[in-house]
Fold each of these.
Amino acid sequence: EEKIFMARVAEQAERFDDMVDFLRPILSEKGGDFSVEERNLLSVGFKNLIGGKRTAIRTISAIEQNPKYSKFSDALGQYKKKIEGELGKDCQDIINMIK
């Protein structure tokens, strides 16, 4: 009950990584058998968690296309790979949670 409450607080604070973290122990206990509320909270948290990273990747890709910033292409590429790695990890985490 406290974890659900804290997940709601994290949602209001737009701390979606924390929201997913609060839900993680509840979901691992239930093994995929979630209540409607838990499923909705997970959906909102995960959607917003990955949405920010996807936006960041698109932004960096757009900057990479600008010839004005070509001298920074290595740094931009590394930064984009870092975010892509985080995104991949988040996606794998959610898959593991709902198995």
Amino acid sequence: AVVSTQSTGEDVERMVDLLQNYKENLTYSSDIKLQGSIKRVIDMCKSDLFGALLDIHEYQKDLLIHSQPPFTLNVTDSLANNRNNYLNYTSNTAPPQACC
């Protein structure tokens, strides 16, 4: 996986610039539908909703990259500790007495 040094917002701005340049270079009448589609994509990328979604994405990405889990559970070590605790307990207690 390639890790980008740019933020997602910068990537989107670059994409919008590239799309605008491409749209401006479409000159044939057969490109009218494509121009309309590109305009809709550009407008969507510039919308407040899309900006909010990018902010949420950046926040979640930052949390995942910089957060540490509250604890780690090593099952093997946990089982070994429980076994050792049980052995220590049983070796320090008297065997049960027979009744009657």
Amino acid sequence: TVIYARDKWLAPGGILLPDKAVLKVSTIEDEEYKSQKLGFWDNVYGLKMTSIQKWVIAEPLVDFVDSKAINSESCPVFSIDLATVKVQDLDFASEFKMKSLRKDQVQGLVAWFEVYFSHSHLSLIHI
């Protein structure tokens, strides 16, 4: 992990890049993707395995999301100073609200980290 590497190898006075991270979430609607992932279990090489669908829907996925599927504003839920964070700091709860961008279904949440290089000698512009 970053924390392990920082504590083991970062020299005193050294800087960590990136040094800040913000966990953000948004909602998505992607019926085609959902149907593809769940529909697969309707016929797995001739076997009906629909009972697996309830487990598949409960498991988190790591995948790319088309930006057109995002249907809410992003919401920051946790900020991390990578230079000082401790493992126990990562056990957190966060209340948040998201604003819908359009009238649509919500089929899931997407989460990602935005990272920052605050020790840079250049002014950074967030796009």
Amino acid sequence: GGRNSNRRLADMFEYNFATSMWSEVKASGTPPSSRSAHTSVVYGKKMLVFGGRDGEGHCCEDFHEFHLEARVWRRLDCTHSLLMRARHSAVIHGDSIVIFGGWSGKKKLNDLCMYNLDTNKIRVIHDNDENDA
């Protein structure tokens, strides 16, 4: 994923430290659409990808998982308006993804949310709309 000067991309590369070489990852399954400004985090043997802007420039609300060993993509059954954002930050903390800020497609976000990977639930920790200040 990402963007070149003309369009959003749907590719994925890996770096081999032993050979100092980059190579494109060949994978099966259902990958995310082309996007930029998304987040990916690693949880166990999986990379999780969500948010970003699609080829039309709209914020994405889909959630995808890439199994690092099997090299298989799958779309997760999780759609929540709080995940629909771009240019945000995210980290893994315990069994949750902590998500901060970003862009909703209409305004800057200044919120803090936690998405629990085991329960498939999201909760708002802090919701301070800097646009109202």
